[in-house]
Amino acid sequence: MGDLLIHCGEEHPQTRLVLLHGWGADANDLIPLGDSLVAGSGLAMERMALHAPEPHPAGFGRQWYGLFPPQWADVPKAVSQLRERLEGGDQRQIPLSRTVLLGFSQGGAMAIDVGCQLPLAGIIACSAYPHPGWQPRTERPPVLLIHGRNDDIVPFEAQKRLSEQLGGESKTCQLITFSGGHTIPESTQPQMIQAMQSWLKPISQDS
Length: 207
Hints:
The protein is an alpha/beta fold. It has one domain (4-206): Alpha/Beta hydrolase fold, catalytic domain (Rossmann fold, 3-Layer(aba) Sandwich). Helices cover 28% and strands 21% of the residues. The protein is built from five helices and nine strands. It is globular, with a radius of gyration of 16 Å.
């Protein structure tokens, strides 16, 4: 269990939220976001955060693959490893069909790439970008894309590219933007949390 951090505040969870952190962070980074999404939402949702497999070159934090400069050749291995971790987890109580994958930045790119290969309940990608050469499958889970319009790390254009590759805004691809940079506006813009909660509720009920 060294590569997992599980934080569950529900006695009988019905769905699972898997959190994928960004470049240089670790599994602890998105736990507060997961707690905020579940708190007061009425969702009986387990929160599970994953550590990326590689140490960050700065000596602290983790990475899914090298990013500055980008090591795109390592992406297929990273995607395969993450898929194996998700498929190999305990699905006796909560199957993949009742699992939502949420990723930020590099974790968002991983969530999109891996999530569109699996029969998940849904995918939330925050400040994400498409991997080079990536194409989604025709049959894929619903996707929510969230991006700051003033993001200077992963430019806002990345959300537009993802949206185009996913077929544009539709019932299965929703877009949310906010007036901010490379962040998840949890405390400064609580309406973002409310928007994610609103998206999660029908996803969780239908799964």
